[in-house]
């Protein structure tokens, strides 16, 4: 399941207490102070990982706690520090503090980290000629995680246009394709290699009229194309006798514009899919003329036009 929002509680480890101890012998009852320091508590650290693509885990597991530091002991022995707790999150996770509403960080690159709760410092022992101190208090906070996918190309269009068939034909992504609308329920990422270059494509659930205001969960999905460099707008040309592809393009463009967040100003390639079903292709020229823009004509089934399309996408986006 793809989940793109979560709330979690994080608590770092407490610092270990400093120790009060004196060297004793048969003669000297209370000799030199030798109480060791307490160990530092472990931090809680969020770390972006390219191996994760959903926040689903955080719906089952909401509480995270790092190890505490151990107390100091006699003979100047420092307590063992608590281990840091690393929490992997998908690349593209935006972190906010719930209490203050403050934006904390956007973890984008694989391996990037954020210390989200600092462990308490270990307390000083009495060995330095002063009283021992207790361990420091660890930080704790409630945070929200919001995933906005990181992909180069967003594949958008009405349901059933052939978006998933296309991504499955050019990448190893297994995006279910079927002859009914709304087959794709969550964005699916696919890595496409073309000659020596690599781009990540996001196969989006189909958009419908009113998507910008939440129809068909459109607004939830549109946010995942906010960070793409470019859009690939796919239209089902086999429907030409029943549906006007030109109007389809305008309708979806309008949704992008109404959604905002500058997604309508992204560079866009228009693709007419399912050309294998057309007897008469003259309609394509007519629509191109109306649009004043070149459209790419492909068949994800026969692979016609796919190479030319990838050439153009990679030329524009790499
Ligand atoms: N003839 C033909 N059929 C195609 C082509 N591409 C896709 N299809 C068919 O069109 C139907 C819809 O394909 P999908 O890839 O599921 O479409 P989608 O745009 O991902 O649909 P949603 O996930 O519902 O938005 C399936 O039955 C595909 O087999 C094509 O190039 N030619
Ligand atoms: Mg699909």
Shape: elongated
CATH 2nd-level architecture of the largest domain: 3-Layer(aba) Sandwich
Question: CATH class of the largest domain, please?
Answer: Alpha Beta
Order of neighbouring strands in the sheet with most strands: 10-11-9-12-13-14
The pLDDT mean sits at 94
**Count of alpha/pi helices:** 6
Question: What small molecules are bound in this structure?
Answer: guanosine-5'-triphosphate, magnesium ion
Instruction: Give the CATH topology of the largest domain.
Output: Rossmann fold
Largest sheet: 6 strands, mixed
Cα(first) to Cα(last) distance is 30 Å
**How many extended strands?**
14
Strand content: 15-25%
- Secondary-structure element series: EEHEEEEEEEHEEHEHEHEH
Q: Classify the secondary structure makeup into a structural class.
A: alpha/beta
User: Could you estimate the helical fraction of the residues in percent?
Assistant: 10-25%
- Which residue ranges are poorly predicted, with pLDDT under 50 across at least 5 consecutive positions? none
Query: Using only CA atoms, what is the Rg?
Result: 29 Å
Number of domains: 2
- Corresponding CATH superfamily of the largest domain: P-loop containing nucleotide triphosphate hydrolases
What tags apply to this protein structure?
Spo0b-associated Gtp-binding Protein, Chain: A; elongated; alpha/beta; 318 residues; 2 domains; six-stranded mixed beta sheet; Rossmann fold; 17% helix
Brief description of this entry?
By secondary structure, this protein is an alpha/beta fold.
């Amino acid at each position: 399941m793809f989940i793109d929002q979560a709330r979690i509680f994080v608590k770092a480890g407490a610092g270990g207490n400093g120790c009060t101890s004196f060297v004793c012998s048969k003669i000297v009852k209370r000799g030199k102070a030798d109480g060791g320091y307490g160990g530092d508590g472990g931090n809680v650290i969020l770390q972006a990982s390219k191996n994760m693509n959903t926040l689903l885990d955080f719906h089952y597991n909401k509480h995270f706690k790092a190890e505490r530091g151990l107390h100091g002991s006699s003979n100047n022995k420092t307590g063992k520090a608590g281990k840091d707790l690393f929490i992997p999150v998908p690349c593209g996770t935006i972190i906010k503090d719930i209490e203050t509403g403050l934006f904390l960080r956007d973890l984008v690159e694989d391996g990037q980290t954020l210390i989200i709760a600092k462990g308490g410092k270990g307390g000083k022992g009495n060995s330095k000629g002063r009283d021992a101190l207790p361990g420091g208090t660890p930080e704790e906070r409630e945070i929200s995680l919001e995933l906005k996918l990181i992909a180069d190309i967003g594949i958008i269009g009405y349901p059933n246009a052939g978006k998933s068939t296309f991504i499955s034909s050019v990448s190893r992504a297994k995006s279910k394709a079927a002859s009914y609308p709304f087959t794709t329920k969550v964005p699916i990422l696919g890595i496409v290699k073309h000659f020596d270059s690599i781009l990540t494509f996001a196969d989006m659930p189909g958009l419908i009229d009113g998507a910008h205001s939440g129809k068909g969960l459109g607004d939830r999905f549109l946010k995942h194309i906010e960070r793409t460099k470019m859009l690939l707008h796919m239209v089902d040309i086999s429907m030409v006798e029943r549906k006007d592809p030109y109007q389809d393009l305008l309708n979806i463009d309008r949704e992008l514009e109404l959604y905002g967040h500058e997604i309508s100003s992204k560079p866009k390639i228009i693709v007419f899919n399912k050309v294998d079903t057309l007897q008469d292709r003259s309609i394509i020229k007519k629509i191109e003329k109306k649009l004043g823009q070149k459209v790419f004509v492909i068949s994800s089934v026969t692979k016609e036009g796919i190479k030319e399309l990838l050439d153009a996408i990679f030329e524009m986006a790499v």
